[in-house]
Design brief:
Length: about 650
């Protein structure tokens, strides 16, 4: 198998099978007809009736699946509910579940479950590791790739109902009339799958493509330009979702260019979108090359603006305060904005997690954030509850993630990276699902439901995230990657004249005393951005969890850890553990040789070899480098380095980072 079918490896029913059962729908909308068509094609069970019940308002896009005695009924308030119910049935069939007597109700946790594509109009993808963009801008709208529908179907099957097509570092060209027709072509294909299209916009569009004098949000010509542009968009795409905006961040233009605030900028766009029920997802990923701790900046910029954003603006916040690291504490902005809607941005594409070369199952990372208790509204104020409407009423709730999808045959580069796309969709639908449950589903559908295989593959997946943290950045270390492309270690990295906050030393602060970032009151005081008691827990070296120790503290090499080891020893053992864990992944996978088709077996096997080599590279680079500060031996019972530090320093990967 080449992986192109993802988790949708269903065989079409034969004519004889189809003759034995009936699928009926009370709704004839395009989305309901899609639900019916999917069941017509793939459902081998008893009769199914798709029923719309407008009174079931509490369902939203949810549904009920009920055994009627002789067949099944899917009840929903909207056509999308029927579609999700149909995919649920197919999933249960794929998992081999008995459906007699079934009665289940599913209601999605978030209204908007959205993928962010960082795809450029030239076909490259920023931080994309699965080939070029799926969107063929040169061919659209005339030529329609069959992969557009296949993509939409895969999303619908896991409940994703919205996509941002283009990079947050947005080209203004996306708003040109010719591009809008291309966008419309995609929107038309996605619509029957219940998927709405959003676009990333460049804040300077009025000036660059509109011929307006500037792009100042308080300039009436600018707001008029946006109003007209939005009108044009809705004339072309009546169910258009809205805009995603990266402003005044990493060189992107924004309202601050004119002395205005993020709120001024967001609200001007929100006004234009409001008549059509459109939304602005305004990103909080902002930081400047100042002396202020980068981890504090989003909070500092946005908290003073709380209450100033229009109702149809949602602040889109990365899970951690820095940038999609293997492990970060949650972003302290969650819960700190009391009068503004907040949504999480995850990254499915593995920018900082070994690209599509490393097997890393991300559900545990996503869950770690969603289940984090911020204490904003007292105990139990988890990020899930703050963003899903439980604790803070919101006009629309949303959750997003940066996609890992490209034109590779298997969509995501690594076969196991498909699981991260899957897991995001499933958690966006129901954040209470466990990582294990999601893994079991995915494995059963993607490989086989043979119990021993499901168990073995699940073990691999469940270890993988801790493994990557261990061999890359244990104990709260972060951002010690090679410059710019972020593949591989470069703790010694330094670019003369480059921004401090892009340099590894900025984050690890290794010296002869110890290492780590002092974010306590005696340091940058980032801890004070967390609600009590977290500020104290994180701020005290004795109560700060090991997993975040070097994130919050500059710790001496000889500091006694909870394990009784010194910090230096603990660091060494963690790196070594990471390498050993990858070795175990290799062994566990090799044992499955005769249970997985040879094509996917070999592909994963060879990627695991790269991962194992990279893990050793990480361990040697970090330990040999930090040893020059710690001035102590690497404990003699762990694997010895196989590299020379000076050789590792010479590695210069020629990777292009597109933006
Ligand atoms: C970082 C990426 C950069 C993105 C930026 C963003 O390195 O390519 O443009 O985030 O999210 O993770 O805007």
């Amino acid at each position: 198998a080449d992986g192109s079918q993802l988790w949708l490896r269903y065989d079409k029913v034969t004519a004889a099978e189809a003759g034995r059962r009936q699928i009926r729908s009370t709704s004839s909308g395009p989305v309901a007809l899609m639900a019916k068509a999917e069941l017509d094609d793939y459902w081998r069970g008893p009769a199914v009736e798709l029923v719309i019940d407008k009174k079931k308002r509490e369902y939203g896009e949810g549904y009920q699946i009920k055994w009627t005695g002789s067949g099944l009924q899917i009840l929903a308030q909207q056509d999308r509910g029927l579609l999700y119910g149909a995919y649920h049935l197919l999933r249960l069939q794929g998992e081999g579940k008995d459906l007699r007597g079934v009665d289940l109700t599913e209601i999605p946790a978030y209204d908007i479950r959205i993928l962010n594509h960082w795809d450029n109009l030239d076909g490259t993808i920023e931080r994309g590791y699965a080939g070029r963009s799926l969107w063929k801008w040169l061919e659209l709208p005339t030529q329609i790739s069959p992969r557009y529908a296949a993509y939409a179907r895969a999303n619908a099957s896991i409940g994703i109902n919205a996509v941002v097509l283009n990079n947050v570092n947005a080209s203004p060209d996306i708003l040109r009339p010719d591009y809008l027709l291309k966008v419309k072509a995609l929107a038309d294909i996605f619509r029957p799958y219940g998927i709405q299209v959003y676009l990333s916009i460049n804040f300077s569009s009025p000036k660059i493509i509109g011929g307006v004098k500037d792009s100042d949000p308080l300039n009436p010509d600018v707001s008029t330009w946006w109003k007209n542009k939005v009108k044009e968009i809705y004339r072309t795409i009546p169910d258009f979702g809205g805009f995603l905006v990266k402003a005044n961040s990493e060189g992107q233009p924004g309202p601050q260019d004119y002395g205005r605030t993020h709120a001024d900028g967001a609200n001007m766009l929100a006004d234009a979108l409001k008549p059509y029920d459109g939304l602005v997802m305004w990103r909080a990923f902002v930081y400047n090359p100042t002396t202020e701790d980068r981890a504090k900046q989003a909070y500092q910029e946005f908290v003073p603006l709380d209450g100033k954003f229009s109702e149809n603006v949602i602040i889109q916040i990365k899970n951690g305060p820095i940038d999609f690291q293997p492990r970060e504490p949650f972003n302290p902005l969650f819960g700190a904005l009391r009068k503004s809607s907040e949504m999480v941005e995850f990254q499915i594409t593995q920018e900082y997690l070994g690209f599509s070369n490393h097997l890393v199952y991300l559900a545990p990372l996503f869950k770690e954030t969603l289940d984090s208790d911020t204490y904003s509204d007292g105990k139990g104020s988890t990020i899930a509850k703050l963003t899903d409407g439980t604790l803070r009423p919101a006009k629309k709730t949303a959750i997003s993630a940066v996609a890992n999808i490209g034109e590779d045959t298997n969509w995501t580069g690594h076969h196991f990276a498909q699981a991260n796309w899957y897991a995001f969709g499933r958690l966006a639908w129901d954040h209470q699902l466990s990582s294990e449950q999601i893994a079991e589903e995915w494995i059963s559908l993607t490989f086989s439901r043979e119990e021993q295989l499901v168990h073995a593959v699940k073990e691999i997946m469940m270890t993988s995230r801790e493994a990557v943290v261990n061999y890359m950045m244990p104990l709260g270390l972060h951002h010690i990657f090679a410059f710019d492309h972020h593949y591989g270690p470069e703790p010694w990295g330094d670019r003369k004249g480059g921004r401090a906050d892009w340099m590894p030393w900025y984050y690890h602060n290794a010296d002869t005393v110890g290492m780590g970032f002092d974010r306590t009151a005696s340091g940058s005081d980032a801890v004070s951005q967390y609600f009590p008691p977290l500020d104290e827990i994180y701020g005290d070296i004795t109560s700060c969890p090991d997993s975040l120790l070097l994130w919050f503290h500059h710790v001496s090499w000889t500091h006694r850890m909870k394990s009784g080891r010194t910090m230096w020893e603990e660091l060494c053992y963690r790196y070594d553990a990471g390498v050993q864990q990858v070795r175990e992944l290799q062994k566990a996978w090799d044992r499955l040789e005769h249970q997985v088709d040879s094509q996917r077996f070999a592909a994963v096997q060879s990627k695991l070899k790269i991962q194992a080599k990279d893990a050793v590279w990480w361990k040697d680079a970090c330990l040999l480098y930090f040893k020059t500060f710690a001035r102590q031996p690497i404990p003699y019972d762990i694997e010895r380095p196989v590299h020379e530090l000076e050789d590792l320093k010479k590695i210069k990967l020629n990777l292009i980072h597109h933006n």
